[in-house]
């Protein structure tokens, strides 16, 4: 399931068929679904990506999908990574066995994404300071936090819809 450009990524990944009972339920929340798609596009392929390239965003989103063991989102973000023409350094961010090596910036990004994706309540001010010490600008720390929060939300919405698919 390689999806990059899709009007509703969550609905496609959740397997919501047009005209189905669940599609009718979701249609009642079209505003939320539309905002979710807009946020997807803004978090992953913003017009002005700042210090987090589109490739890095896709790679980190792919890493989060792997952490959450969600194959359809893995495929989706891998397709986005391919489309971004990711250099090896960016693509390595998606490897859950890679810790950043000697690249302080990559190490800080990975450490933060892994922490917040696994145990967000354990994140502290010190974790933000580690990103700053690695040379990551405050605006990019905000962008990174938005990306992690959004991808985690997006995966949970899709999983919830997949569960509902069998109930309606």
Keywords, separated by commas or semicolons:
single chain, about 170 residues, mainly alpha, AhpD-like, 9 helices, disordered N terminus
CATH homologous group name: AhpD-like
- What structural class should be given to the helix and strand makeup? mainly alpha
CA gyration radius, whole angstroms: 16 Å
Strand content: under 5%
Helix content: 55-70%
Q: Give the C-level CATH assignment.
A: Mainly Alpha
Mean pLDDT: 90
What's the shape? elongated
How far is the N terminus from the C terminus? 24 Å
Q: What is the count of structural domains?
A: 1
The largest sheet is: none
By DSSP, the count of extended strands is 0
One letter per element, helices H and strands E, the order comes to: HHHHHHHHH
If you consult CATH, what is the topology?
A: AhpD-like
Helix run count: 9
Question: Your description of this structure?
Answer:
- This protein is mainly α.
- The chain has one domain: Up-down Bundle (AhpD-like).
- The protein has helices spanning 9-14, 21-27, 30-44, 54-67, 71-83, 88-91, 104-118, 125-133, 138-165.
- The protein starts with 8 loop residues before the first helix and ends with a helix.
- Residues 1-6 have low confidence and may be disordered.
